Known about the structure:
This protein is an alpha+beta fold.
Amino acid sequence: MRVIKVGLVALFVLTGCSTEGMDANSIHQKHDYGMGAFGPGPLNFEHMQGETFEPGQTNLGTSYINPSVPHRTLEEDARQVEGIVTKQGFRSGTAFVNGGHIYVKAHPNEHWSKKETEQHLIDLNRAFKSEIPRYRVHVR
Protein backbone atom coordinates (compact mmCIF):
# COMPACT_ATOMS: atom_id res chain seq x y z
CA MET A 1 0.00 0.00 0.00
CA ARG A 2 2.85 2.39 0.85
CA VAL A 3 4.48 1.76 -2.54
CA ILE A 4 1.23 2.62 -4.32
CA LYS A 5 0.93 5.91 -2.37
CA VAL A 6 4.52 6.86 -3.19
CA GLY A 7 3.95 5.97 -6.84
CA LEU A 8 0.81 8.13 -7.05
CA VAL A 9 2.55 11.09 -5.40
CA ALA A 10 5.48 10.75 -7.82
CA LEU A 11 3.06 10.58 -10.75
CA PHE A 12 1.31 13.79 -9.70
CA VAL A 13 4.60 15.59 -9.09
CA LEU A 14 6.13 14.56 -12.40
CA THR A 15 3.11 15.46 -14.50
CA GLY A 16 3.64 19.11 -13.60
CA CYS A 17 7.27 19.05 -14.81
CA SER A 18 6.74 19.57 -18.52
CA THR A 19 9.56 21.25 -20.44
CA GLU A 20 7.51 21.86 -23.57
CA GLY A 21 7.88 25.46 -24.71
CA MET A 22 10.44 26.28 -22.02
CA ASP A 23 13.60 26.49 -24.13
CA ALA A 24 15.49 29.79 -24.36
CA ASN A 25 14.32 30.63 -27.88
CA SER A 26 10.61 30.30 -27.13
CA ILE A 27 10.93 32.33 -23.92
CA HIS A 28 12.70 35.17 -25.75
CA GLN A 29 10.14 35.09 -28.56
CA LYS A 30 7.31 35.49 -26.06
CA HIS A 31 9.16 38.39 -24.38
CA ASP A 32 8.07 37.29 -20.91
CA TYR A 33 11.57 36.65 -19.58
CA GLY A 34 11.36 39.76 -17.40
CA MET A 35 8.55 38.31 -15.31
CA GLY A 36 9.42 36.30 -12.23
CA ALA A 37 7.31 34.13 -9.94
CA PHE A 38 6.38 37.16 -7.84
CA GLY A 39 5.96 39.83 -10.51
CA PRO A 40 8.31 41.83 -12.72
CA GLY A 41 11.94 40.82 -12.56
CA PRO A 42 15.10 42.92 -12.65
CA LEU A 43 14.73 43.66 -16.36
CA ASN A 44 11.71 45.80 -15.54
CA PHE A 45 13.32 47.84 -12.79
CA GLU A 46 13.33 51.55 -13.56
CA HIS A 47 17.10 51.95 -13.20
CA MET A 48 17.72 49.32 -15.88
CA GLN A 49 15.28 50.57 -18.52
CA GLY A 50 18.02 52.29 -20.55
CA GLU A 51 20.33 49.27 -20.62
CA THR A 52 20.16 46.99 -23.63
CA PHE A 53 20.45 43.23 -23.51
CA GLU A 54 21.13 41.02 -26.46
CA PRO A 55 18.48 38.27 -26.77
CA GLY A 56 19.78 35.03 -25.36
CA GLN A 57 22.34 36.80 -23.18
CA THR A 58 20.05 38.31 -20.55
CA ASN A 59 21.11 36.16 -17.59
CA LEU A 60 24.86 35.92 -18.05
CA GLY A 61 25.84 38.75 -15.71
CA THR A 62 29.62 39.00 -15.70
CA SER A 63 30.03 35.49 -17.13
CA TYR A 64 32.07 35.20 -20.31
CA ILE A 65 30.22 32.24 -21.80
CA ASN A 66 30.06 34.21 -25.03
CA PRO A 67 33.14 36.48 -25.17
CA SER A 68 31.95 38.29 -28.30
CA VAL A 69 29.08 39.96 -26.39
CA PRO A 70 30.05 43.05 -24.36
CA HIS A 71 29.63 42.36 -20.64
CA ARG A 72 29.65 44.64 -17.64
CA THR A 73 32.78 43.96 -15.61
CA LEU A 74 33.38 44.13 -11.87
CA GLU A 75 35.91 46.89 -12.55
CA GLU A 76 33.19 48.99 -14.21
CA ASP A 77 30.96 48.47 -11.16
CA ALA A 78 33.78 49.57 -8.84
CA ARG A 79 34.45 52.66 -10.98
CA GLN A 80 30.73 53.49 -10.94
CA VAL A 81 30.77 53.40 -7.11
CA GLU A 82 33.87 55.60 -7.02
CA GLY A 83 32.10 58.04 -9.35
CA ILE A 84 29.04 58.18 -7.09
CA VAL A 85 31.30 58.93 -4.11
CA THR A 86 32.98 61.77 -6.00
CA LYS A 87 29.65 63.14 -7.27
CA GLN A 88 28.41 63.39 -3.66
CA GLY A 89 31.34 65.64 -2.72
CA PHE A 90 33.62 63.06 -1.10
CA ARG A 91 37.14 62.12 -2.16
CA SER A 92 36.96 58.47 -3.16
CA GLY A 93 39.34 55.73 -2.20
CA THR A 94 39.50 52.42 -4.03
CA ALA A 95 36.33 50.35 -4.27
CA PHE A 96 36.60 46.57 -3.76
CA VAL A 97 33.96 44.23 -5.15
CA ASN A 98 33.33 41.05 -3.16
CA GLY A 99 30.33 39.13 -4.48
CA GLY A 100 27.23 41.21 -3.84
CA HIS A 101 29.13 43.66 -1.63
CA ILE A 102 31.32 46.64 -2.49
CA TYR A 103 33.65 48.22 0.07
CA VAL A 104 34.69 51.80 -0.59
CA LYS A 105 36.53 54.48 1.37
CA ALA A 106 34.92 57.93 1.24
CA HIS A 107 37.02 60.80 2.59
CA PRO A 108 34.79 63.73 3.65
CA ASN A 109 35.62 67.31 2.77
CA GLU A 110 37.76 68.75 5.57
CA HIS A 111 35.61 71.90 5.67
CA TRP A 112 32.41 69.99 6.54
CA SER A 113 31.21 69.98 10.14
CA LYS A 114 30.38 66.66 11.79
CA LYS A 115 26.66 67.24 11.20
CA GLU A 116 27.24 68.07 7.50
CA THR A 117 29.38 64.96 7.11
CA GLU A 118 26.62 62.79 8.59
CA GLN A 119 24.06 64.32 6.21
CA HIS A 120 26.35 63.80 3.22
CA LEU A 121 26.82 60.14 4.26
CA ILE A 122 23.04 59.68 4.37
CA ASP A 123 22.78 61.21 0.89
CA LEU A 124 25.64 59.00 -0.32
CA ASN A 125 23.91 55.83 0.89
CA ARG A 126 20.67 56.92 -0.83
CA ALA A 127 22.61 57.49 -4.05
CA PHE A 128 24.09 53.97 -3.84
CA LYS A 129 20.67 52.41 -3.36
CA SER A 130 19.18 54.27 -6.31
CA GLU A 131 22.10 54.09 -8.77
CA ILE A 132 23.61 50.65 -8.11
CA PRO A 133 20.98 48.65 -6.18
CA ARG A 134 22.38 45.22 -7.12
CA TYR A 135 25.20 45.69 -4.59
CA ARG A 136 25.29 46.33 -0.88
CA VAL A 137 27.80 49.16 -0.56
CA HIS A 138 29.79 49.53 2.64
CA VAL A 139 31.37 52.95 3.21
CA ARG A 140 34.43 53.28 5.42
